[in-house]
Structures are given as C-alpha cells and as structure tokens.
C-alpha cells in the first residue's frame, strides 16, 4: 500500500512500508558516477523540493561529497532516508562489514537507512557466486542486527537469486532495486517481490532519456499538461514502485518532484505498460550465475 499525502513537503512525504515496519519515501533523488552527482542539485532537492530520500553507492565515488551536502542542507538526519550500495568487488563477510562502516564515515552518518548488495554477480576468484552472495548476505544481516543498517536489500537480483536468500532461512531482503520504466518491465519479478513482501524499487524511470521522445509518452504529456518525465515518473509511482530519478540540474529535479498533483487514468497506464517490447534492456541479467 502506498500512502500519498495531498502535498509533497519536507514533513509529509509519500511512503511505502517495508516488511520490518519502516517506511521508505516513494520518490527519491538518484545519483551515479561519471558526472551523475551535483552538489547544487542535491541541495536544491533537499532544501527547495522537500526530497528526503537520496540514493547513492560506493561505486559512484560521491559518498563523501554527498555527506557534505547533507550537512550543508541543514535537514535533520532523522528526516532523511539514505541508501548506499556495496560493490561486488567488496563482497565477503569481513570486507562487507568494513566497507559498510567506511561508507558511513564518508557520508558522515552513524547509520544507513538502507544498504544494498549492488549486483548478484560476484568478483571473488575461486569461490562460486552463490557462496559469496550467501556469505555477504550474512554480513548484511549482522549489520542490520547491530543497527548500523536500518534495512537491507539487494539490487538487480532475479527471482532465483532471491530464492537463494530466502532458502537460507534468515532475513528476506526488504528491498530489491531494479531498472524499471515503460520499456523495461520485469513483471514476473515485480509480482514475486510483492508476494514475498519485498519492496520493489525502480531506477532509470526515464529509460536514460529514451522514453521522453516516445510518441505515446509525448501525447500523454500534452493531454495532462505535464512534461514527459513527469508522465514516466507518475506511471512508475502509480504502479507502486519506489522511484529514484536522477538529475544534476535543479530545474529538472524540481520538475521530477511535481508528480503528486495528478493521476493517470487506467487506459493511459495501460498504454504505457504496452510499450514494453524487451528491446530496451540496458543490463543483461542472463549472464549472472
């Protein structure tokens, strides 16, 4: 169930409940490497747009800069939802626990709201990916039990990867973060996550810009008097997906936040869902063991 208030403000944010009772904001600001971080955009999102959910990763190389922006914003830590991710090169029990603590130091925080395994494929020679995933997940469970991570999850995991974790009998991931947009709709995975009470979170809601010029998206933007990006983000949110668009431009960040004052009708939701044709996959999950 998604709770959407009448207005999106710093103190009243749409949320989705996790299986452990915590609530993740349904809209966040994503970051990335290779120019995907902007100090100005993060401050604008926090101070002007009321965004309280920021997603990053060690791999992006911007945790320290983001930590400085969080302090400069003046937003109390308890009002923030901060997610970062563990890169496969750091998988393993002891490494995972140390790298998590290092991320907290760079971010300038005492705990993480959500810590994710970034990918299911592993980079540990001589050990099967299945074994490494299991060992790494045990470390995340310990970090969760210690309170360093308020929620733990995975990113880009497929159903058989999630089954592996579930079969070990420990904590089921609270979140699975996967690419999700009109051209990339892993519906079987979405349904599995809902059945197992795993919150489904979607990145790249604009399909790296490809969706913005699609005739259907453009026609709906004109119909609703909204931008193409707002149509895509609204579609994702109405599907119950936690959505983290990224932008380094304050004006785009502002635009991407204006998605709670309208709704797409059922026929338009269906029209966007029909855009999935399997040809716009930017990552190939089939190679993962």
UniProtKB/TrEMBL annotation:
One of its GO terms (molecular function) is oxidoreductase activity. The keyword Oxidoreductase applies. InterPro entries: AKR, Aldo/ket_reductase_CS, NAD(P)_OxRdtase_dom_sf, NADP_OxRdtase_dom. It comes from Cirrhinus molitorella. It comes from the Eukaryota. This is Uncharacterized protein. The keyword Oxidoreductase applies. Belongs to the aldo/keto reductase family. Keywords: Oxidoreductase. PROSITE patterns: ALDOKETO_REDUCTASE_2.
